[in-house]
Specification:
alpha+beta; 51% helix; transmembrane; membrane
Length: 122
């Protein structure tokens, strides 16, 4: 059996198998990317973070339970005005993250402590 005969008889099947493998690989890669984005969003979504909601409203998270996404989040959209929204209504974190500020403060404190421990050569 020559190559031309093989392609003539089985070419379509080979093409379909290659296409199915590509579709499976592409789908799996996209799902992994979406999962990583969701995990990053969950880490950033903490009380005090400024967020953009699906409806175009900006607000500050007051209460959010990352473990129970069926529990509504409490978002302050104006001073003294808090609304309950579904956790999936939070589109993205847009403002400074208080957790990042705490990490930066801890790093600054550690740097200051190291500077205090060093002797002065005056």
């Amino acid at each position: 059996m020559s190559f031309e005969e093989f392609i003539g008889q089985y070419g379509l099947i080979v093409l379909l198998v290659v296409l199915l493998v590509f579709m499976f690989w592409s789908s799996r890669r996209r799902m992994q990317k979406q999962k990583a984005e969701q995990e990053q969003r969950a880490r950033q979504t903490v009380p005090g973070a400024e967020v953009l909601l699906q409806g175009g409203l900006y607000g500050t998270i007051v209460e959010y339970d990352a473990d129970n996404l069926d529990q509504p989040a409490l978002v302050e959209i104006a001073p003294g005005v808090e609304i309950k929204v579904h956790s999936q209504a939070i589109l993205r974190v847009v403002g400074p993250n208080p957790a990042d500020d705490e990490i930066a403060e801890a790093a600054d404190d550690a740097t200051d402590a190291d500077a205090d421990d060093k002797p002065n050569n005056v």
